[in-house]
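User: Second chain of the day. Same drill as before.
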Amino acid sequence: MTTTRATAHTALPVPASLAEAAQSARGRGEPLVVMTTLERCPYCDVVRNHHLLPMLRDQAVVAVQIDVRDTRRNLRGFDGTLTSPADQASAWKARFTPTVLFFDDRGHEIAERLVGVAVPDFYGSYLDARLESARSRLRK
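Assistant: Same format as last time:
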């Protein structure tokens, strides 16, 4: 999977290609988890640092992030089309950060997305349920 190096506010990998990232996830039998983020978003930090990053380190998920305001970086979409992270987030109608989306290797959403952090104490349970749903859809 081609990604760029993480910076202080981007502890998750930033993909150069969603198709490559999804193929990498599929090779492990996992959905691709994409978090939309925004610099200095405290809720994004909670989801990234307390949930997705530990799961990524444990190799329990394949997760990447895209910045909803990033118009300068090139991002190859699932269909191979070149776009920007901001345009991709807009195409997904992912207006709020964080939004966590779950994709198969063809770029189809396969579980209900998680939008925002309504109840922080239960976020891990919500995330686990969405991951199980996505994994179940991959097995079909």
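The longest helix spans residues 123-139.

User: Great, on to the next one.
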